[in-house]
Amino acid sequence: MEQGCTHFEGGSAGSPVRFVRNAQSVVAATLRQLVQPGRVHSAVYTSPDIFEAEIERIFHGSWLYVGHASEVPQKGDYRVRRLGRQPVIMVRGHDDVVRVLMNRCRHRGAAVCEQEAGREKFFRCWFHGWTYDNTGKLINVTDPAGYGDDFRMEEYSLTSAPRVEIYRDFVFASLSPKVGSLAEYLGPAAQMIDLLVDASPTRRIKLSAGVHKTVYNGNWKMVGMDGYHPHYVHASVVSMWQRQADSGIGATHRADPFDGKAKTYTRDLGHGHAMLDMREHRVEHYADYETYLKGVQGGAEYIEALAARDGAEQSKLLVAIAGDPHIGVFPNMQIINNQVRIMVPLEPGRTEVLMFPVLFDGVDDAINTMRLRQHESFYGPAGAGSPDDAEIFERAQRGMNAQVNPWIDISRGMTREQAHPDGTITGHISDEVPQRGQMRYWLELMTEGAELE
């Protein structure tokens, strides 16, 4: 076998697929063998080499969601996050500007911020005492005489992420200065983010309720946008829907949207973004949402406020959607039910998920309390749904380590996809439209500019 090659059995007609990696890159031609129409080689989920290439080309080379501006509401507030493997600080400076700064002292490289969250006027490196203000400006160097007369402190501020843009208070950053605009990247996904933000009477949401964290032993690409699994993985929850049990605003369902009869769809939005599109279904069941919500303190006033601002038709959609566009923004953000979610890839078979419950600004506290209780009921540590998902992801990862016939099938619904004038592609709610859209863009990013075999 050639040096630098790893051998995977299971090519077409039983022939082997070689995965080639040289010192510079995972070879693009080989990756194209591993992602084919309707199927994906399991090495895409299990290979350490491919995972390293993902970190470099996707997580260090494209737009990533960092956090929400409401997480840093006051001057000096910060959150420590990661862009791929690189540590950053999302901080609101004393000038009220939200920045994404590399968490690295400009002297000897030590992290200047160790706490996950807090409020600081200054970040001080504990190695040699260099001190920065909360805009990243270097304001103090210990024993400055040792640096000579030509040392310029203004040249040693904390480094900003090369690209930072904010959409509706959602903060995105990229480690690559070459990426296009965030608006171009989001495309139709931006309209789905609007469905969440506009569900607040003031068009402002808050991610101030804390975070649920979980780590599962599976690949990061498994998370979300699968309308095929609920009847099997979440059978007990589906049974509750069938009993027409109420769980409040933000509840995904008053009738089963995955039964094959509902007006629900999978939708590929481009650039790897995808959604389970339940808008039509939820509007159809608007009366049930309205009745429930009017029984909650402040619910009637909330409905009236949206109607006065947006008119009957749009406000009806916003109430029915309840802030849940059920969308994945590639590669690391999802808005599902009552939460904004961040996926953090740790290893090929290990992923951290951060889940931030969403609160609406401008509503009665009882509405937000209800949203929190509903979030906890499905996604909390003792929730009815999220532990099921983590378990099935781990089972899938274990199974994919069997390499005798390593192809994963994602062909469901290929023959009934529909392309639309806005560039989106839809299918049946159980079709693997999102998975195919994700893998198309994954392959584009992984092979862009890469050396060919």
TrEMBL record:
Keyword Endoplasmic reticulum: no
GO MF term set: 2 iron, 2 sulfur cluster binding; dioxygenase activity; iron ion binding
Keywords: 2Fe-2S, Dioxygenase, Iron, Iron-sulfur, Metal-binding, NAD, Oxidoreductase
Pfam families found in the cross-reference section: Rieske (PF00355), Ring_hydroxyl_A (PF00848)
Rieske domain location: 63-173
Domain of life: Bacteria
Gene3D superfamilies cross-referenced by the UniProt entry: Naphthalene 1,2-dioxygenase Alpha Subunit, Chain A, domain 1 (3.90.380.10), Rieske [2Fe-2S] iron-sulphur domain (2.102.10.10)
InterPro entries tied to this protein: ARHD_Rieske_2Fe_2S (IPR015881), Rieske_2Fe-2S (IPR017941), Rieske_2Fe-2S_sf (IPR036922), Ring_hydroxy_dOase_asu_C_dom (IPR015879), Rng_hydr_dOase-A (IPR001663)
Coiled coil ranges: none
Similarity remark: Belongs to the bacterial ring-hydroxylating dioxygenase alpha subunit family.
PANTHER family for the chain: 3-PHENYLPROPIONATE_CINNAMIC ACID DIOXYGENASE SUBUNIT ALPHA, CHOLINE MONOOXYGENASE, CHLOROPLASTIC
Name this polypeptide is given: Rieske (2Fe-2S) domain-containing protein
Phylogenetic placement of the source organism: Bacteria, Pseudomonadati, Pseudomonadota, Betaproteobacteria, Burkholderiales
